[in-house]
Amino acid sequence: MAFEIERRFLIKNDNWKEFINKKIYIEQGYLSKSLDGWIIRVRLIGKNSKITLKKHIKGFTNFEFEYSIPRSDAETIMSNLSNKENNYPLKIAEIELSNEKEDLFLPSFISEEVTGLTHYSNFSLANNPFSKWKEN
To answer: How many folded domains does the chain comprise?
Structure first.
């Protein structure tokens, strides 16, 4: 069984850029209409493409099943999705863990933790982009 254990944090400055050694453009879209149940995502990752099924279990652990699919299939699916996201200037760091109790060292560019806050999930941001949020 495949699990993803992940924590998410807001990024407060651009100091993270000094740690980059490779960039990969990722475009993603969602076939799901709700956070309830299974989330179905299609990603174009460089020259590769994948379909992923995710479901929250508890804490910051999810079931995650990811499969490669033909690029042409992924492009067809993506072209029919209307949830193109515009989340500038929001920046989120995702840290994948081997278990929920794993100790973390958080670099100085990390701000507050947003793990579990559904409005910061990739699915929610695709359907309600950060650029459309009203300032509080």
So the answer is: 1
φ and ψ of 14, to 5 deg = -95, 10
Instruction: Give the model's pLDDT for residue 1.
Output: 65
Query: What pTM, to 2 d.p., does this model score?
Result: 0.83
- What's the domain range around 126? 3-132
**Closest by Cα among 61, 44, 40 to 52:** 40
Averaged pLDDT of the chain: 90
Given a cut of 90, whether residue 87 has pLDDT beyond it is no
Q: CATH number, domain at 48?
A: 2.40.320.10
Q: Would you state the pLDDT for residue 85?
A: 63
At residue 127, the pLDDT reads 87
Helix (H, G, I), strand (E, B) or coil at 122: helix
Three state DSSP letters for 51-109: EEEEEEEECCEEEEEEEECCHHHHHHHHHCCCCCCCCCCCCEEEEECCCCCCCCCCCCC
